[in-house]
TrEMBL record:
Organism name: Sulfurimonas aquatica
Taxonomic lineage: Bacteria, Pseudomonadati, Campylobacterota, Epsilonproteobacteria, Campylobacterales
Protein name (record): Uncharacterized protein
Length: 115
């Protein structure tokens, strides 16, 4: 195809993002234990290849979403938002693991009184 033929297709389709959700396990072992533990979180991933490649990799039963945007800026903002949510989930898990390592159990109370 020539560049002239490619441009109209891009304009018609706009900008697409293929995404899918997957449960991710974060493994850790407490200092006084031999048995590893896992914290699971559902994370949304961006698939950067075609839907056909996605189906080859994950099978045709794996659910996915295709989000379309008119502008590249909107597409990038959507991807950034997904990345921020993933970063937040990772930070949350890291904090949860750190609290468990520090106290040897899940701690959810206040550490000190500000009164």
């Amino acid at each position: 195809m020539t560049n002239n033929e490619t441009a109209p297709q891009t304009e018609e389709k706009g900008y697409e993002v293929i995404s899918f959700e997957q449960v991710v396990g974060f493994n850790y072992t407490l200092p006084d234990e031999d048995e590893p533990r896992t914290i699971e979180r559902e994370i949304t991933f961006v698939w950067e290849e075609s839907i056909e490649k996605f189906k080859e990799e994950h099978g045709s039963d794996k659910p996915y979403k295709v989000n379309s945007f008119k502008r590249e800026r909107e597409q990038k903002a959507f991807i950034e938002r997904l990345e921020d949510l993933t970063d937040d989930a990772i930070e949350e898990v890291q904090e949860e693991i750190a609290n468990k390592m520090k106290f040897g159990f899940e701690f959810s109370g206040q550490l000190h009184n500000d009164d």
